[in-house]
Design brief:
The structure is a homodimer of 233-residue chains. With 233 residues, chain A is of the alpha+beta class. In chain A, the strands form three sheets. A six-stranded antiparallel beta sheet of chain A has the order 4-5-6-9-8-7. A two-stranded antiparallel sheet of chain A has the order 1-2. Chain A binds a DNA duplex (19 and 19 nucleotides) through helix 3.
Chain lengths: 233, 233
DNA sequence: AAGTGGTCTAGACCACATG
DNA sequence: ATGTGGTCTAGACCACTTT
């Protein structure tokens, strides 16, 4: 896809030059000739960068660099299970549990599935730079993901799904709330009793619209902060 | 904008017919003739609906209805201060404090502003269906918003900014975390001491890229749940 | 008035899913 | 093989900001 290549090239150019917030980029027509793309393709590439929070466009005025005001926050907009993101940070995981089981009522609701379907259940503890990040309970639908084992679970599951099963994430729903940790969660997160937790439930759909993974995450409230950039268009 | 009208028309058509998750819509070319728009315009309209989580598209297969799996969650993707959203719910607010003050160090960092600038500070308590929703501390930059009073603060500030000052939100940054409530917050939220809070810091930029409003929100962890839909494109 | 981004079109061609 | 969505183009025109 040409527009993605162009978007990437522009992004890298911004990063490499370390441009400041509000710096003005060359005009649309200039960029078109620079990257040898039609105006329409250019517009699409810029729309992508705008969606990612890297630039903003002002009609009649220009295209400007947009930076986030704070650092070290986990982006909420990526679907990959953030192995790809947070480049400078070391994310690791420890597998705590692995089994096959039937869905709970909540799971039946979220997947809109048969109560007799089988699910791979896995519980993991994740670390960021060796600090506890979160506890993750994931449920993979066996109907869609026919095989999983502990070894795969210890590496990148989404990488396996993509490469081996050719199963890609099309879109996802996230549900967020704060709550008091359960006793078990507090122990695993190495936090005192009654400490708060940041809960994210996440439902992943394939590109064809079938939900195949539900993930229940409790984040350490001190080690995990999140951010999100939006546009009004 | 034609593509926005088309997008709205399709959305309303889906809602009116109360179509189920996964229902297939007419093909791209059929929609083009139905709404009398070129294929390109149609594609853009559909991209918008996809971004809003209303449909999903599968190459080579079709366009399908996407519904969220759960209800009664506050969407994180709108910038309007949610007066517009949550149609069936009654959102009200009570003004607790109103004054002009200089920025704190955090504020100087987020606005990247002069320490001598003046800010309108206002503290509000918000309710959803008469239950406590959150405590909001907002700071409006006087340089951009030259006038505000208690009366305006009691109604829709963003409506005032738009209509009277012609100031629109271009984009925004949100920062999220869980934490233990302070004593004052707990009292205002009518929660016990040491209860958790869901914190959202929000920085609003004008369409020209100038940050003009910083808002620090603490949500009642039982009365406020959030959701977010993403696409992998 | 000039320059910039935003919208829309018709049409060609590509990539994928399904029967 | 057919139909579907996805990409790309050149070009016309519109809306806004700046000088």
């Amino acid at each position: 896809m040409k527009y993605q290549e162009v978007a990437l090239a522009i992004e890298q150019s911004i990063r490499k030059q370390n441009l400041a917030q509000g710096t003005r980029l060359p005009s649309l027509s200039q960029l078109s000739t620079t990257y040898d793309a039609s105006k329409t393709t250019m517009v699409k590439a810029l729309a992508i960068l705008e969606g990612r929070g890297i630039i903003f466009q002002v009609q009649g005025s220009g295209i400007f660099v947009r930076l986030k005001a704070r650092d070290n926050y986990i982006p909420l907009t990526t679907n990959t299970g953030f192995t790809t993101d947070l480049g400078t940070h070391l994310i690791t995981a420890k597998l705590l549990e692995f089994k096959v089981q039937k869905p709970s009522e909540d799971l039946i609701r979220d997947f809109n599935c048969d109560p007799d379907e089988d699910f791979f259940f896995l519980k993991r503890k994740r670390y960021i730079d060796k600090k506890v990040l979160c506890i993750e309970n994931s449920y993979f639908r066996q109907k869609v993901v026919p095989y999983l084992n502990e070894e795969i679970a210890n590496e990148s599951i989404f990488g396996y799904l993509d490469k081996v099963l050719n199963l890609k994430v099309g879109f996802s729903d996230k549900y967020l709330q704060a709550n008091v940790l359960t006793e078990a969660e507090a122990k695993l997160l190495e936090l005192p009793l009654n400490a708060p937790g940041f809960y994210i439930d996440e439902l992943f759909y394939s590109t064809t619209g079938i939900p195949f993974d539900f993930s229940q995450n409790v984040y350490h409230y001190k080690n995990a902060h999140f951010f999100l950039q939006s546009i009004n268009k």
